[in-house]
Design goal:
4-stranded antiparallel sheet; 7-stranded antiparallel sheet; 208 residues; Jelly Rolls; alpha+beta
């Protein structure tokens, strides 16, 4: 495993000015070994009750451009894009992975949003995970399974200040601190990609 890639506190990025990044983003390449990652991908693809979530965009309801499933502890409800979701029970394979993930991140998680990108035309637009129930400085741990895809982060105050990662099979990316307050992230379309990707974003939902 290569040395973790830390998003520095005040980077100078090509094409953009120096920016006061208060948060860190950590990329762990191959955090989950290839054999384990593939076994998990196949189980989740077969077992999870995937649905097309309806979300509100620009004042109208549309189908989300990917398949999704909200999963976690009983009663951990999540509201985003104008919809409220009740969790599916933990999948046994995810529950078995949870202690290792929590140790690696130094944080507890009581829920996970699973997104299934069927091919390169499925995507996630610019957004922040800044819902009130996540708290002011949430830690979001994102595990990638399957096809390698681009992941892009940009500053809300200056969209020219951005950084890109290539997230591959078994990679773990962790966002923490002020990241959701000061930045947005996206998973752009990659039309040439034919294989699917499953992404698991773990988080802690505060009771309301």
């Amino acid at each position: 495993m290569r040395t973790p890639d830390l998003f520095p506190a005040a980077p100078t990025l090509p094409g953009g000015p120096e920016a006061p990044f208060a948060a860190q983003v950590t990329h762990l390449s191959g955090w989950l070994g290839a054999e384990s990652a593939e076994a998990l991908r196949l189980r989740l693809a077969a077992d999870v009750p995937w649905t097309v979530h309806r979300i509100r965009m620009f004042g109208r309801w549309v189908d989300s451009p990917r398949l999704s499933c909200w999963m976690g502890a009983p009663g951990v409800r999540y509201r985003y894009s104008g919809s409220t979701f009740d969790p599916e029970p933990w999948h046994p394979a995810i529950q078995a992975l949870l202690p290792r993930l929590q140790t690696a991140c130094g944080a507890a998680f009581n829920s996970v949003l699973l997104n299934r990108y069927r091919q390169g035309g499925d995507y996630m637009g610019w957004h922040s995970d800044d819902e009130p129930e996540l708290g002011p400085a949430p830690l979001i741990a994102s595990l990638s399974l399957g096809a390698e895809r681009r992941f892009v982060l940009r500053m809300k105050a200056d969209h020219s200040v951005k950084r890109e990662w290539r997230l591959a099979h078994g990679d773990l990316l962790v966002m923490r601190g002020d990241c959701q307050r000061v930045a947005q992230h996206a998973l752009p379309k990659m039309e040439a990609v034919q294989d699917e990707r499953i992404n698991l974003t773990f988080r802690w939902i505060n009771p309301r």
